[in-house]
Amino acid sequence: MPESALEKMLHTAADLQATLDGSTMTEAHRAFLQSMLADMEATFRDQADQIRVIRAVLPRRDDAGGRATVAYVDRLFTERGSLRLH
User: Fold this and answer.
1) pLDDT per residue over 42-59, tens digit each?
2) Among 13, 48, 58, 81, which is 20 to 30 Å from 2 by CA?
3) Closest Cα partner for 19 from 3, 7, 32?
4) How many CA atoms lie within 13 A of 22 on its CB side?
5) CA–CA gap between residue 12 and residue 69 (Å, rounded)
6) DSSP secondary structure string for all residues of 25-83
7) What's the pLDDT band for 82 if we cut at 50, 70, 90?
8) Who's near 40: CB < 8 A, 6+ residues apart?
9) What is the number of structural domains in the chain?
10) Which of 13, 80, 15, 69 is nearest to 45 (CA)?
């Protein structure tokens, strides 16, 4: 997968997670977003080497989207246990 597509997925996943964390959406909508997020995270596990490269570049972007994505990726790195991306 091209790095730019994977990076866009990382930003989208971070946005989805933020939406899920602070939302009062319906259960059906929440389930749909959680399923989409799980599919993206499965792709991230499959592309772990590329995620590490992207993660190394993201802190150089000093904008809210970049910071949110870095926080999301860092959380993935620390929460996944045996499924860690690194």
Assistant:
1) 998 888 888 888 888 877
2) 81
3) 32
4) 4
5) 8
6) --HHHHHHHHHHHHHHHHHHHHTHHHHHHHHHHGGG--SHHHHHHHHHHHHHHHH-GGG
7) very low
8) 9, 12, 13, 16
9) 1
10) 80
